[in-house]
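We modelled the chain as a single entity of 146 amino acids. Its sequence is:
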Amino acid sequence: MTKRERANANYRFDLIRMFLMKPAPLKGSYIDDYTERQAKANELLKISRSLSRFAEHLCNGTIQEEEDGTYSRYYEAGDGVPHKVGKASDRYKTAEKRIKAILEGTGKAFYFQTDPRGCALYLYDPKEVSPEKIDQVYVTRGLAVY
């Protein structure tokens, strides 16, 4: 990683930390709030990477959604036919629970972008954009978490 790439990564991380600030007055010391937001930002980055990998698996066909809404793992042997291996967890549901817990009290919201070619998780302020229209403007109005 070059110095410029490291600086850009640090800048994005700082933006995520600032985005997680609560609108209410700070409780406790500033240091406690800073370290809490830093831990939450790290958790959001992990969730985003996990969602990106999940979207890649869905696109490649190694994980497929079944008719009942569950996910299953598949592998392709030399015969070109996908073989079912077993169940796969729904990372969207688990990520949604974790993100809601992280964003609780901040007044912020999130959006999942399921295309594996881009960022999987965007944070936005619902006061600026309605949740119904976020799928049209998430690239310009949302904060990409990657």
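As a brief sanity check on the tokenised model: The mean pLDDT is 84. The chain has one domain: 3-59+90-145.
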